[in-house]
Amino acid sequence: MTQDELKDAVAAAAIDEIRPWLERDTVLGVGTGSTANLFIDRLAALRDDFKGAVASSEASAERLRGHGIEVFELNSVGTVPFYIDGADEVNAHLHMIKGGGAALTREKIVAACAERFICIADASKKVERLGEFPLPVEVIPMARSYVARELVKLGADPVYREGVVTDNGNPIIDCFEFMIDDPVAMEARLNAIVGVVTNGLFAARGADVLLLGTEHGVERLTPA
Ligand SMILES: O=C(CO)[C@H](O)[C@H](O)COP(=O)(O)O
Protein backbone atom coordinates (compact mmCIF):
# COMPACT_ATOMS: atom_id res chain seq x y z
CA MET A 1 0.00 0.00 0.00
CA THR A 2 1.13 3.55 -0.65
CA GLN A 3 1.50 6.09 2.14
CA ASP A 4 -1.60 7.89 0.83
CA GLU A 5 -3.61 4.66 0.97
CA LEU A 6 -2.49 4.12 4.57
CA LYS A 7 -3.53 7.69 5.40
CA ASP A 8 -6.92 7.14 3.82
CA ALA A 9 -7.36 3.89 5.75
CA VAL A 10 -6.84 5.70 9.07
CA ALA A 11 -9.16 8.51 7.97
CA ALA A 12 -11.84 5.87 7.39
CA ALA A 13 -11.06 4.24 10.76
CA ALA A 14 -11.48 7.62 12.49
CA ILE A 15 -14.91 7.98 10.92
CA ASP A 16 -15.84 4.53 12.31
CA GLU A 17 -14.45 5.57 15.71
CA ILE A 18 -16.60 8.71 16.05
CA ARG A 19 -19.72 7.80 14.07
CA PRO A 20 -21.56 6.07 16.96
CA TRP A 21 -21.14 9.20 19.12
CA LEU A 22 -22.32 11.83 16.66
CA GLU A 23 -25.43 13.76 17.60
CA ARG A 24 -27.22 16.64 15.89
CA ASP A 25 -25.55 19.17 18.22
CA THR A 26 -22.02 17.69 18.03
CA VAL A 27 -19.20 20.04 17.06
CA LEU A 28 -15.97 18.21 16.19
CA GLY A 29 -12.40 19.45 16.40
CA VAL A 30 -10.61 18.93 13.10
CA GLY A 31 -6.89 19.10 12.44
CA THR A 32 -4.61 20.07 9.59
CA GLY A 33 -2.50 18.27 6.99
CA SER A 34 -2.85 15.63 4.31
CA THR A 35 -4.21 12.95 6.66
CA ALA A 36 -6.67 15.37 8.24
CA ASN A 37 -7.73 16.41 4.73
CA LEU A 38 -8.65 12.81 3.90
CA PHE A 39 -10.64 12.67 7.13
CA ILE A 40 -12.46 15.91 6.21
CA ASP A 41 -13.31 14.49 2.79
CA ARG A 42 -14.82 11.38 4.39
CA LEU A 43 -16.63 13.46 7.01
CA ALA A 44 -18.57 15.15 4.21
CA ALA A 45 -20.80 12.08 3.84
CA LEU A 46 -21.91 12.48 7.49
CA ARG A 47 -22.51 16.23 7.41
CA ASP A 48 -26.23 15.88 8.21
CA ASP A 49 -25.47 13.79 11.30
CA PHE A 50 -23.64 16.48 13.31
CA LYS A 51 -23.66 20.24 13.76
CA GLY A 52 -20.25 21.30 12.48
CA ALA A 53 -16.57 21.64 13.29
CA VAL A 54 -13.87 23.81 14.80
CA ALA A 55 -10.83 23.91 12.54
CA SER A 56 -7.17 24.14 13.54
CA SER A 57 -6.24 26.18 10.44
CA GLU A 58 -7.67 28.43 7.78
CA ALA A 59 -6.90 25.71 5.22
CA SER A 60 -8.96 23.10 7.06
CA ALA A 61 -11.78 25.60 7.66
CA GLU A 62 -11.92 26.27 3.94
CA ARG A 63 -11.96 22.55 3.12
CA LEU A 64 -14.72 21.90 5.65
CA ARG A 65 -16.84 24.73 4.25
CA GLY A 66 -16.22 23.41 0.75
CA HIS A 67 -17.98 20.22 1.82
CA GLY A 68 -20.89 22.16 3.30
CA ILE A 69 -19.76 21.58 6.89
CA GLU A 70 -20.34 24.60 9.13
CA VAL A 71 -17.22 25.96 10.85
CA PHE A 72 -17.52 27.42 14.35
CA GLU A 73 -15.25 29.68 16.40
CA LEU A 74 -13.77 27.76 19.32
CA ASN A 75 -14.84 30.51 21.71
CA SER A 76 -18.47 29.93 20.82
CA VAL A 77 -18.22 26.17 21.37
CA GLY A 78 -16.20 25.63 24.56
CA THR A 79 -15.27 21.97 24.42
CA VAL A 80 -15.36 19.43 21.61
CA PRO A 81 -15.91 15.70 22.21
CA PHE A 82 -13.22 14.67 19.70
CA TYR A 83 -10.19 16.25 18.08
CA ILE A 84 -8.98 14.31 15.05
CA ASP A 85 -5.58 15.15 13.61
CA GLY A 86 -2.40 13.72 12.14
CA ALA A 87 1.15 13.85 13.50
CA ASP A 88 4.70 14.12 12.24
CA GLU A 89 5.96 11.64 14.85
CA VAL A 90 4.25 9.69 17.62
CA ASN A 91 5.74 7.46 20.32
CA ALA A 92 4.31 4.61 22.39
CA HIS A 93 3.00 7.05 25.03
CA LEU A 94 1.14 8.85 22.23
CA HIS A 95 3.31 11.92 22.72
CA MET A 96 3.70 13.63 19.36
CA ILE A 97 5.68 16.07 17.30
CA LYS A 98 3.29 18.19 15.26
CA GLY A 99 3.50 21.37 13.25
CA GLY A 100 5.01 20.18 9.99
CA GLY A 101 2.17 22.12 8.37
CA ALA A 102 2.79 25.16 10.63
CA ALA A 103 -0.60 24.84 12.36
CA LEU A 104 0.78 23.76 15.75
CA THR A 105 -0.60 26.61 17.86
CA ARG A 106 -4.22 26.28 16.81
CA GLU A 107 -3.86 22.50 16.85
CA LYS A 108 -2.68 22.61 20.46
CA ILE A 109 -5.49 24.96 21.45
CA VAL A 110 -8.24 22.82 19.91
CA ALA A 111 -6.62 19.67 21.33
CA ALA A 112 -6.64 21.28 24.79
CA CYS A 113 -10.41 21.75 24.48
CA ALA A 114 -11.05 18.17 23.35
CA GLU A 115 -12.37 15.38 25.51
CA ARG A 116 -10.56 12.85 23.31
CA PHE A 117 -7.68 13.34 20.87
CA ILE A 118 -7.69 10.77 18.08
CA CYS A 119 -4.38 10.74 16.24
CA ILE A 120 -4.46 9.38 12.69
CA ALA A 121 -1.14 8.46 11.09
CA ASP A 122 0.53 6.06 8.71
CA ALA A 123 3.11 3.65 10.13
CA SER A 124 6.09 5.81 9.10
CA LYS A 125 5.14 8.28 11.86
CA LYS A 126 5.57 5.79 14.75
CA VAL A 127 8.96 6.17 16.47
CA GLU A 128 10.74 4.92 19.60
CA ARG A 129 12.10 8.35 20.44
CA LEU A 130 10.83 11.73 19.24
CA GLY A 131 13.17 14.10 17.42
CA GLU A 132 14.20 12.71 14.07
CA PHE A 133 11.54 15.02 12.61
CA PRO A 134 12.69 18.62 13.23
CA LEU A 135 10.65 20.06 16.09
CA PRO A 136 8.71 23.20 15.03
CA VAL A 137 8.60 26.22 17.35
CA GLU A 138 6.31 29.18 16.57
CA VAL A 139 7.76 32.47 17.80
CA ILE A 140 6.85 36.14 18.10
CA PRO A 141 8.64 37.78 15.12
CA MET A 142 10.89 40.13 17.15
CA ALA A 143 12.04 37.23 19.36
CA ARG A 144 13.22 35.00 16.52
CA SER A 145 16.97 35.43 17.00
CA TYR A 146 16.77 35.36 20.78
CA VAL A 147 14.73 32.14 20.78
CA ALA A 148 17.11 30.57 18.26
CA ARG A 149 20.07 31.30 20.58
CA GLU A 150 18.22 29.74 23.51
CA LEU A 151 17.43 26.67 21.41
CA VAL A 152 21.14 26.28 20.61
CA LYS A 153 21.85 26.28 24.36
CA LEU A 154 19.43 23.35 24.67
CA GLY A 155 21.36 21.42 22.02
CA ALA A 156 19.21 22.05 18.95
CA ASP A 157 20.26 23.22 15.52
CA PRO A 158 17.53 25.83 14.85
CA VAL A 159 16.62 26.68 11.26
CA TYR A 160 14.25 29.51 10.32
CA ARG A 161 11.47 28.14 8.05
CA GLU A 162 11.87 30.57 5.13
CA GLY A 163 8.73 31.96 3.55
CA VAL A 164 6.33 30.50 6.12
CA VAL A 165 4.03 32.64 8.26
CA THR A 166 1.50 30.92 10.49
CA ASP A 167 -2.24 31.71 10.57
CA ASN A 168 -1.33 33.81 13.64
CA GLY A 169 1.19 35.91 11.68
CA ASN A 170 4.31 34.40 13.24
CA PRO A 171 7.46 32.67 11.92
CA ILE A 172 8.50 29.07 12.62
CA ILE A 173 11.89 27.80 13.74
CA ASP A 174 12.57 24.10 13.14
CA CYS A 175 14.89 22.36 15.61
CA PHE A 176 17.15 19.85 13.85
CA GLU A 177 19.47 17.36 15.59
CA PHE A 178 17.24 17.48 18.65
CA MET A 179 16.44 14.02 20.01
CA ILE A 180 14.02 14.24 22.94
CA ASP A 181 14.29 11.90 25.94
CA ASP A 182 11.61 13.47 28.13
CA PRO A 183 8.91 15.06 25.94
CA VAL A 184 6.79 16.32 28.87
CA ALA A 185 9.75 18.12 30.48
CA MET A 186 11.05 19.48 27.17
CA GLU A 187 7.62 20.79 26.18
CA ALA A 188 7.47 22.80 29.42
CA ARG A 189 11.11 23.92 29.05
CA LEU A 190 10.53 25.28 25.57
CA ASN A 191 7.31 27.01 26.62
CA ALA A 192 9.34 28.88 29.25
CA ILE A 193 11.54 30.64 26.66
CA VAL A 194 10.33 34.21 26.31
CA GLY A 195 9.01 34.81 22.82
CA VAL A 196 7.94 31.22 22.17
CA VAL A 197 4.28 31.05 21.21
CA THR A 198 4.01 27.27 20.99
CA ASN A 199 6.30 24.31 20.49
CA GLY A 200 5.34 21.25 18.49
CA LEU A 201 5.66 18.76 21.34
CA PHE A 202 2.22 17.45 22.24
CA ALA A 203 3.11 15.55 25.39
CA ALA A 204 1.40 17.11 28.43
CA ARG A 205 -1.74 16.64 26.36
CA GLY A 206 -0.94 13.71 24.08
CA ALA A 207 -3.37 11.62 22.07
CA ASP A 208 -5.88 9.27 23.72
CA VAL A 209 -6.08 6.94 20.74
CA LEU A 210 -3.72 6.33 17.83
CA LEU A 211 -5.14 4.86 14.65
CA LEU A 212 -2.01 3.66 12.86
CA GLY A 213 -2.13 2.60 9.22
CA THR A 214 0.08 -0.45 8.60
CA GLU A 215 0.45 -3.01 5.82
CA HIS A 216 -1.56 -5.41 8.01
CA GLY A 217 -4.46 -3.03 8.58
CA VAL A 218 -5.26 -0.22 10.99
CA GLU A 219 -3.96 -0.74 14.53
CA ARG A 220 -5.81 0.94 17.37
CA LEU A 221 -3.34 1.92 20.11
CA THR A 222 -3.78 3.64 23.47
CA PRO A 223 -0.97 5.23 25.55
CA ALA A 224 1.60 2.74 26.91
O1 LIG B 1 0.87 18.93 12.60
C1 LIG B 1 0.44 18.97 11.47
C2 LIG B 1 0.23 20.24 10.73
O2 LIG B 1 0.71 21.35 11.45
C3 LIG B 1 0.09 17.71 10.77
O3 LIG B 1 -0.79 16.98 11.56
C4 LIG B 1 1.35 16.92 10.55
O4 LIG B 1 2.28 17.73 9.85
C5 LIG B 1 1.07 15.65 9.76
O5 LIG B 1 0.73 15.99 8.45
P1 LIG B 1 0.36 14.91 7.36
O6 LIG B 1 -0.95 14.31 7.75
O7 LIG B 1 0.28 15.72 6.08
O8 LIG B 1 1.48 13.90 7.30
From TrEMBL:
The keyword Cell inner membrane does not apply. Pfam families: Rib_5-P_isom_A. It comes from the Bacteria. Its EC number is 5.3.1.6. Keywords: Isomerase. Substrate binds at T32, G33, S34, T35, D85, G86, A87, D88, K98, G99, G100, G101, K125. It catalyses: aldehydo-D-ribose 5-phosphate = D-ribulose 5-phosphate. Pathway: Carbohydrate degradation; pentose phosphate pathway; D-ribose 5-phosphate from D-ribulose 5-phosphate (non-oxidative stage): step 1/1. One of its GO terms (molecular function) is ribose-5-phosphate isomerase activity. The active site is at E107 (proton acceptor). Belongs to the ribose 5-phosphate isomerase family. NCBIfam families: PRK00702.1, rpiA. Homodimer. HAMAP family: Rib_5P_isom_A. Catalyzes the reversible conversion of ribose-5-phosphate to ribulose 5-phosphate. This is Ribose-5-phosphate isomerase A. It comes from Billgrantia campisalis. The lineage of its organism: Bacteria, Pseudomonadati, Pseudomonadota, Gammaproteobacteria, Oceanospirillales.
